[in-house]
Amino acid sequence: MRRDDHASPEAIEKVRFTRSYAKINLTLDVLGKRPDGYHELATIMQTIDLYDTLCFSIIDEDRVSMVCNRPELSNEQNLVVRAAQAIRQKLNLTRGLSIELNKRVPVAAGLGGGSSNAAATLLVLQQWWQLPLSLHDLWEIAASLGSDIPFFLTGGLALCEGRGEKITPLAPHWPTAMRWLVLLKPAIGVSTATVFRQLTASDYSNGSWSRAAETALQTRSTLRPTDLYNSLERGVLAQYPEVAQARAAMLQAGASYVRLSGSGPTLFSTFADLPAAAWVQHQLQQQGYEAYLTHPITTTSDGISYF
Predict the structure, then answer these.
(1) Is residue 23 annotated as a catalytic residue, yes or no?
(2) How far is Cα 183 from Cα 262, in angstroms, rounded to an integer?
(3) How far apart are CA 245 and CA 5, in angstroms?
(4) What is the pLDDT of residues 123-169, one digit of tens each?
(5) Torsion, Cα of 62, 64, 47, 153 (10° steps)
(6) Is 185 a catalytic residue?
(7) Which residues of this UniProt protein bind ATP (predicted)?
(8) I need a labelling partner for 160 at 20 to 30 A (CA). Which of 15, 151, 173, 235 fits?
(9) 96 annotated to a ligand binding site
(10) In this predicted model, what pLDDT tens digit does every residue of 170-206 receive, in sequence order?
């Protein structure tokens, strides 16, 4: 019996679709630089209803191929291909795959689109092919591919520490005053490595912002806009004038506050009601900005659940 005969070919559907959801960083504390060159983090992350779609097809050849509606992403270095290859190599599988990726989540935007794609690939192959891989096995593969990928194996609301790979799921108690999100993606890309490399000592924190936000969310106490913090925000606003201009545009359009997600350049603001959120999105789109209106989501055993 071949190692990839965990489920007989006749028992497996030839095609499988899945969605791959983005995230925002509600908080992001950078505690300092680690001996391995990475930075020690504490961050509250939350999946949102902005997603890419992946289509997986079984092929008779012993290989993995991928095409994307963004041609520059159709290559073997894409995290989707690397995730599929990692599983195939771990279990010595020969079953081939053709993957189609329809990108809607902005690229290099601080929203975790590529990491989410990789995690979705790991989960799909485990379930679809009925592979003998535990969640811990998937976590190990995910952590070897990228720091944000382990979070997307479960998604929802979580405290992420270490390089981001140490995940503590949090109860999905999202404030009603923050149930709508407006995201603005400036028309530039930001290098995560560059942003971290240009951190100064004054940008580091002790993790207290993320811990305070975690406590507020779990006790359902008030979480104020001033309680949200991102250690990378000062540097990004200083280094990228387009991001600073976009932040000013959001405030002028009616957002009460604006925060950076991850290493950016995407900015976000939260709203208690749809009309206010929709108005801000409309104002930004009228100015030519790439703006999204979305909301937080969490995953359950039955699929996606909305707050």
Answers:
(1) yes
(2) 13
(3) 55
(4) 999 999 999 999 999 999 999 999 899 999 999 999 999 988 899 99
(5) 30
(6) no
(7) 106-116
(8) 235
(9) no
(10) 988 888 889 999 999 999 988 888 898 889 989 999 9
